[in-house]
Amino acid sequence: GQVRQDDDRPLPEGTVARLRDRATGVEGPPHLLNSAGQYLLRALPGDYELIIEGEPTSPAPRIAQVLRVGADAPGVEVNLNVGHFDITYVEGRVYDAEGDDQEVAVVRFLADALDPRLTVEATALHETTTNSDGQFRRGILAGDWIVEIIPPYEDDGDASPYRFPLEVDGSGEVSLGRIELPARTQAQSQVLDEAGNPVSGVIVNFTERGFDGFSYSETTNNNGQFSRRLPNVPMDLTLVPPTPNTAVTRMVVEEPGDLPDLQLEVGIVVTGEVTGAGASLSYALVEIYADDGAFLGSTVTDGGGTFSLQVRAAPAGLGDTGNLR
Questions:
Q1: Are the C-beta atoms of residues 84 and 117 closer than 8 Å to each other?
Q2: Is 253 helix (H, G, I), strand (E, B) or coil?
Q3: Which end of the chain is more exposed for a tag (fewer CB within 10 A), N or C?
Q4: Residue 145 burial (CB < 10 Å; 0-12/13-18/19+)?
Q5: CA 101, chain centre distance (Å)
Q6: Alpha-carbon distance 200 to 241, whole Å?
Q7: Which of 295, 315, 165, 170 is nearest to 240 (CA)?
Q8: In whole angstroms, what is the distance from residue 312 CA to residue 291 CA?
């Protein structure tokens, strides 16, 4: 088939076509469109999506068109008129709160609403990285975008990721100037049990909500306290107690620099026995998850193959563990 814009221009250089098997989700190898926007793919009979998208440096969005390859069909021709691609090059320079250029930061563009002159449903996610001077330049289509700037992972760095909206009208060039990444914040608190006593040895895990989902860990001291320098973004917080007497506790933290005292949940006790080939299995790892895949806790069986583990209560009420696996 052939893919063209409404003024008969081909798509941007680096645009490829591939097939995605709708039954398995497996995508075939890409075929680079020629200068006339033409492609040729081979497939067995079945139901597919024709995927048109850009290579990593291309501004082309991802377009999906459903098609069927019949068992007796000599071939299938799919020609697409995608409307109008108006490409704008966005540039800027990224630095941290200390005024230092931020190199090797990921600059990610997520399309919220693409140019209405497109005549097909399309999505777009483009990335580039800053150079040694903190500069970047990337071609994208006109539309409304969310821009994320993510500094490289550092256990004790200075910069936080940053997100902001961007409206691109197709003017050809947009300069964002100098973009300052927010400084990190100091997260500190004390972990307490149900009686209000400090708990030492609790593993405190913070995971960014969104961005690249970077994780950071700390362990409470003898007074149940911890202190950790973190990116100043919303986090998923997980408290993993050192013994199975209290439950793995989860919460969402909007401002990691403003934490109250953290209390471990008592939860409910899950007990059982692990057997195999008619015999009890000693020292087998037992992990418990909620239906949504959230990890609730782990332990090992004793010498007789039995285990006991405290997990947070099921939403249906104490004693109902139907939501666990």
A1: yes
A2: strand
A3: C
A4: buried
A5: 26
A6: 8
A7: 295
A8: 13
